[in-house]
Amino acid sequence: MIASSEIMLERWRHYESKEIDVFLEFKVLTSEIISKTAFGSSYLEGQHIFDMLTRMAHIISGNSYRIRIPGIGFFLKTSDDIESENLEATIRNSFMKMMKRREQEAMLGDIDGYGNDFFGFLLEAYHDSDKTKKISMSMVINESLRLYSPIVAVTRRVEREIKMGKITVPANMEVIISTLAVHQNPEIWGEDVHLFKPERFAEGLAKATNNNIAAFFPFGLGPRNCVGVSFSITETKVALSMILQRYRFTLSPTYAHCPVEVLTMCPQHGVQVILQPYEPKLL
């Protein structure tokens, strides 16, 4: 995480006092960290795989709400079907190639075991250094996730018939729970629900959600939530800590606020900011 963030910040030196799209920068950073963590692969290999995954996500998103006759895909394939199958095969082959190379390096003794790509102890040892401050990094991250969750909805199947107010939900019915609706419900979060207020998390999640902690689920709920929650939060804290040591930033006049769903929530036109080098004042 630290090495990849350092590379990104070194690249940012060319954009000081200029406009830069940090959404694209963070996409590259995330894909590189995941690639190196999982496989120790080079940046180019990881970037190639994640470019293909991004393209597949666009295909899936574009076909999510299209009505199709069950089974027709076995006999009549669309151009999207063909492209997604080719992408899936290429992605699988890329992963297998990296895995086989890692096994060969391990057998030849070029690396210790199968490598030490994931610094798991950081997840256990990491603590906020700013807990004594009024607004902590965790509060800022939680409030950002509340307003702009990675997922816009979760789907669950009802095990038994239940009543929800005046509505009876039969067993085996699939229920779609809107993250956006719950995270911006004034009955839970208060009348200032549409404002960015990190301090609402100052006294913990229970207080912020009016004693309904299940009302905050940016990564899903229960045993089927995102497996990378802790890793992604740690990645965010590490990257932000390193960025704020060097820069302050403001939104660029060219920024257009337009969040859209492409499997996950993302800014349609990017996030343009103006970078200003941070010069701490000496006492």
UniProtKB/TrEMBL annotation:
Gene Ontology MF, one: oxidoreductase activity, acting on paired donors, with incorporation or reduction of molecular oxygen
InterPro entries: Cyt_P450 (IPR001128), Cyt_P450_CS (IPR017972), Cyt_P450_E_grp-I (IPR002401), Cyt_P450_sf (IPR036396), Cytochrome_P450_Monooxygen (IPR050665)
PROSITE patterns assigned: CYTOCHROME_P450 (PS00086)
Subcellular location as annotated: Membrane
Keyword Transmembrane: yes
Top-level taxon of the source organism: Eukaryota
Gene3D superfamilies: Cytochrome P450 (1.10.630.10)
Cofactor: heme
GO annotations of cellular component type: membrane
Protein topology in the membrane: Single-pass membrane protein
Residues reported to bind heme: 226
Keywords assigned: Heme, Iron, Membrane, Metal-binding, Monooxygenase, Oxidoreductase, Transmembrane, Transmembrane helix
Family from the record: Belongs to the cytochrome P450 family.
Protein's name according to its UniProt entry: Cytochrome P450
Organism field: Salix brachista
